[in-house]
Write a structure and sequence with these properties.
alpha/beta; Rossmann fold; 6-stranded antiparallel β-sheet; 19 helices; elongated
Length: 559
Amino acid sequence: MLLELSIKDFAIIEKLDASFRQGMTVLTGETGAGKSIIIDAVGLLAGGRGSVDFVRTGADKAVLQGVFDIAEIANTKTVLEELGIEPTNDLVITRELLKTGRSVCRVNGTIVNLNSLKKIGQTLIDIHGQNEHQELMDSDKHLRLLEQFDYAAVADTKQRYQAAFKAYTKLNRRLNQSLKNEHEWNQRVDMLQFQVDEIKAANLIEGEDEELEKRRDQLVNFQSISDALAASFQVLESEEGVSATDQIGNVMQEMQGIADYDEEYEQIADEVQNAYYSLEDVTNRVRSAIDSMEWNPAELDEVEQRLETIRQLKKKYGNSITEILKYLSRIENELAEMTGAGQNLDDLAVEVEKRLQETKQLGTQLTNLRQKMALKLEQAVRDQLAGLYMEKTQFKVQFNSKKVPELDGLDNVEFLIQPNPGEDLKPLAKIASGGELSRIMLALKTIFARNEGVTSIIFDEVDTGVSGRVAQAIADKIHEISNHSQVLCISHLPQVAARADYQLHVAKKVVKGRTMTNLTALDDEGRVNEIAKMLAGVDLTELSLEHARELLQMEHEQA
């Protein structure tokens, strides 16, 4: 639940701090005092869209902060863990709206994007605004409202249905595309098969082109290499004269003979010795290279042909053997998908039909579960409406089968209502009045509050346009919801204000030409005065004060 709320430089609010408790809290005050602005601030903490218009005139930014107790809110903790935020019992959400248009959101000190904040906020707060009952006017949203009644009852079946539907849709899309472009399809398959065969036939090895080019250069320059090796060996180890090795050997002997006379001579003798042994090694390597030289005219042709094969493949499929092999892997996968491991279009059509029947079967199971849920919802709504002075109203969930399966199932769902006995059940959107819609939505909220797991529910003047006993009934329903969730409520009705566990008064005043909004927690006497004003207007009378005390006393006794 919401524990603390801090607002700074937001709309007409310069600075405001408020504490909230479990139960029902009502916010009262004159129209325009800033009650809805406070709710807007809470909505922004839950991930609502911000605007630079919210920043108070003259300020650089608006700062909002809320502290929530989530000790028993498993859904919130799960979302936090998914986002990599350590869940603590006290959750601190901070949001800054900058005059530049930027928005900075922090959850327990960690910066998050707006989508992540909204994901968290959906588990914390449910704001029911003045016009939210218009949701009931849209029959496309009735299915969601039905499932909201007891989603756990359909969750598993719905997930399995949607998985089957997505598999069917994907396969059917492939079939339709195949049938539409069968000629192009076959051409593509043939081309891919040719390319796979061509590349595989080459038996490419990564790096072999570099080795082949090196070998080709050796073969093309065979004679030059052979001549250079022979001439080098002749110099290193001549049989006709003194070889270079012998000459260096003589130098080594001479220097070793005088090495003892000077350190410089000794160093030279060592270096000449090293040179002698290095030269001997070089001589042996040159000899080995000459022995291994063998001219094979056919090898050059083989190397050239292999390089040409690789060159042609590079021209078609990639700039390197690595790229060619990657392309091969890609087209093999595409070919496997297109052919379905030997599957032709007839086989594909059979598979599509099989997937369709599986989807319909799961869809029928989902429909049956929804219909059972609908019966329970109908009775629950009727029970709640009876407490809102609509005891003769009939409420029904009507199912209409869709022509083809869709992601949400096989059903179109619409709420029907019979407000007066003797009339036919008709679509809620067509015949319900504003007051009836408000009460039906409140009835649904009362039912859903037991299952939603949302820590705080906010009602923003949902009681507009009602009075008398209906107002009292609405007050009772809102208080009933507070047994399961923390409730914050904005109201102008004394019955609702008196029914609340706590009352906060919102007022505005002008200081030095600037509008300021203040929030005050009312004690018992303060509540009496405020409710009396709601009953009688600005001028308090002893009668209105007495009436206010009676209202509070009645609600206290009822509680």
